[in-house]
Design goal:
single chain, about 170 residues, mainly alpha, 8 helices
């Protein structure tokens, strides 16, 4: 079974599977743990119509928080099929699907708390840049085609000056 415990002492393999070295992984683990507990509390503990108390039932294969973070980082870095993830982590494809959906949300919450998510809206970019004065930023953008407006003024506004696409 692929696990963080096996790879934490192999820096090249850990970076190949997760994109992070051990120090970065440990730094992300704290906000991830907080986000996971908040997610579980919101989704499962406070749920009124429980048939058994929280924590009952089968114990998951990804019991440790390091394993959960490792699982979702491997998924996003390598992006294998769910069936391949099931073989790597010795579980079923259906369970992999559940973990991916749950842990993706938790990872997004953790990165949001750590203010490590990219800014998606250009209107908020100035506020983000003002908060992070000492950090260098790179803007990676790709021009996308838009539907050509019929109004001449709008056409001028949307025109980029690039050549027409090759078809």
């Amino acid at each position: 079974m692929l696990s963080y415990q096996r790879l934490q002492h192999h820096p090249r393999a850990l970076r190949a599977f997760t994109g992070l070295d051990q120090a970065e992984f440990e730094k992300l683990l704290t906000p991830f743990t907080i986000a996971y507990h908040a997610y579980m509390y919101d989704r499962h503990v406070t749920k009124q119509a429980r048939k058994r108390r929280y924590g009952g039932g089968r114990k998951p294969r990804l019991a440790a928080m390091e394993e959960k973070l490792f699982f979702i980082l491997v998924y996003f870095k390598v992006y294998p099929l769910q069936e391949v993830m099931a073989c790597l982590f010795e579980t079923s494809q259906g369970r992999v699907n559940e973990w991916i959906h749950t842990l993706s949300t938790v990872l997004q919450m953790a990165l949001g708390k750590a203010q490590a998510l990219p800014e998606r809206h250009p209107k908020n970019l100035e506020q983000t840049l003002a908060l992070c004065v000492s950090v260098d930023f790179i803007i990676d953008g790709t021009e996308r085609q838009v539907q050509r407006p019929t109004d001449a003024a709008e056409q001028q506004e949307k025109y980029s000056g690039k050549k027409k696409p090759i078809r």
